[in-house]
Write a structure and sequence with these properties.
It is built from 18 helices and 20 strands. The strands form 5 sheets. Strands 2, 3, 4, 5, 6, 7, 8 and 9 form an 8-stranded mixed sheet that branches. It has helices at 8-11, 91-95, 133-137, 176-179, 184-193, 196-206, 210-219, 222-229, 234-243, 246-255, 258-267, 270-280, 287-290, 304-313, 339-344, 368-377, 398-405, 408-411; strands spanning 4-7, 15-17, 23-33, 43-50, 53-58, 62-65, 70-72, 80-81, 88-90, 99-102, 107-110, 113-119, 122-129, 155-156, 160-162, 297-299, 323-327, 333-338, 382-386, 392-397. Helix 10 crosses helix 12 (270-280). The chain folds into 3 domains: 4-162, Roll (SH3 type barrels); 176-281, MgtE N-terminal domain-like (MgtE N-terminal fold, Alpha Horseshoe), CATH 1.25.60.10; 297-404, Roll (CBS-domain). By secondary structure, the chain is of the alpha+beta class.
């Protein structure tokens, strides 16, 4: 037997009838629970206007939900004044025509229609239709309305996250664990495509994981970084920056209002302060301005096993950890060893026997074209930056170069995170 399907836009505003078919009032909204832990949230009742009052009709008092009316199971109802309870959401007011997050595609979508399904006698929220056709149907009289049945753009609710900061219920919030499945760049795209309030809600959700929050801020463009840090205290901004890569933190500091820069910088850990101050001394478009001062260096006599253990314990990103800079007793670069070579090498082999030389490198004064040409010629994912004495002072990753080479409009294409 096929499941019964009802569209919220048709049900909301329709007559509420008693068991004999007499009109009791009007259905204003459909109430569902988002905190049930189920893939398809259950419908718990209706918000109805009866005799000029907003009342709650429990779903177990509803005998039938249809596209043009709802029918109760009795002629007499003992109904309470409607009052939203924690964990409840109004599908018409809180979801219909609002933005939601499609976790399957990491995009924002508009719920042009919300579909209910009756599964084994229980009404549930099946999903949404983001296409424009359902909205067009609303211009027709209720009895002439139709809806697509092939679900070409239907999105099941299990793939959705609803923005609920506007819902006056403290238990409802974006599920940070579900958002954490997305890449930080995808989350940043969502923040940039969302309204300010929606973006704040996304950042509040990922803020439960401080490392993820910092990763997302690294991926935001300058405008949105400043937008979402402007209302935070200096201490809160410093907390985010302390977890960001040093080069990204230095770039962000330059975007913040000038009178806040020094106080925020002074709140950072001393080691992070030192690295950022060093980066600020270089032109942003030179190797010194692009480089990340965080990297792994090991002596020539270190073994492959010890080096792998060092990489495992580091908190560097994948590109910074993709190569190890091998230095002599004076700290001068002797060569590099890739992570692939370390894995292939005998665990007890010394780095001197497996390092790659000669090693391409640049000075801090090298400009962007020189850096890009060097990385392209040698097919590098990371390029060492050396001081005048040949000691490594930083590492440039390929994404740092691409960020400067790509036009701004390509980095965050309009509509990329919204459909």
């Amino acid at each position: 037997m096929a499941e019964a399907i009802v569209h919220v836009s048709s049900l909301a505003g329709s007559p509420l009838l008693d068991s004999t078919g007499d009109r009791l009032g009007r259905v204003d909204d459909v109430v569902a629970r988002l905190d049930s832990g189920e893939n398809l949230p259950p419908v718990v009742g209706l918000e109805a206007r009866i005799g000029g009052r907003e009342l709650f009709v429990p779903i177990d008092h509803v005998a039938q939900l249809g596209p043009d009316a709802a029918r109760t199971s009795t002629t007499k109802l003992n109904l309470a004044q409607f009052e939203r309870r924690p964990g409840e959401i109004l599908l018409r007011s809180d979801v219909l025509d609002r933005s939601l997050i499609n976790l399957a595609t990491a995009r924002l979508v508009k719920a042009r229609e919300v579909e209910l399904v009756c599964d084994n006698g229980t009404w549930r929220v099946a999903g949404i239709d983001p296409s424009l056709r359902p909205r067009l149907w609303r211009f027709f009289p209720r009895r002439f309305r139709g809806h697509d049945t092939d679900h070409t753009q239907f999105v099941p609710w299990r793939d959705m996250e609803a923005f609920v900061a506007h819902v006056p219920s403290s238990r409802l919030k974006l599920a940070s664990r579900r958002l954490a499945r997305l890449h930080p760049a995808q989350i940043a795209d969502l923040v940039e495509a969302a309204s300010h309030a929606e973006g704040e809600e996304i950042l509040a959700a990922v803020g439960h994981d401080k490392e993820l929050e910092a990763d997302v801020f690294e991926e935001l463009d300058d405008e949105h970084q400043v937008e979402f840090l402007r209302e935070r205290s200096d201490e809160e901004v410093a907390e985010v920056m302390s977890r960001m890569a040093s080069d990204d933190a230095a770039d962000l500091l330059l975007e913040i209002e000038q009178d806040r820069r020094v106080p925020i910088l002074n709140l950072l850990p001393p080691a992070k302060q030192h690295k950022i101050k060093g980066l600020l001394g270089h032109n942003p478009s030179t190797a010194g301005g692009m480089m990340n001062p965080d990297f792994v260096s090991m002596p020539l006599a270190a073994t492959a096993a010890a080096t792998i253990a060092r990489l495992r314990s580091s908190e560097l990103g994948s590109q910074q950890a993709s190569i190890v800079l091998v230095v002599d007793a004076a700290g001068v670069l002797s060569g590099v060893v890739s992570l692939a070579e370390l894995i292939r090498a005998d665990p007890e082999a010394e780095l001197a026997s497996v390092l790659e030389a000669p090693t391409p490198s640049v000075s801090p004064e090298a400009d962007l074209p020189e850096v890009a040409q060097m990385m392209s010629d040698f097919n590098l994912v990371a390029l060492p930056v050396l001081d005048l004495d040949g000691r490594p002072v930083g590492l440039i990753s390929v994404d740092d170069v691409l960020e400067l080479l790509l036009p701004e409009e390509w980095r965050r294409r309009v509509g990329y995170a919204r459909s």
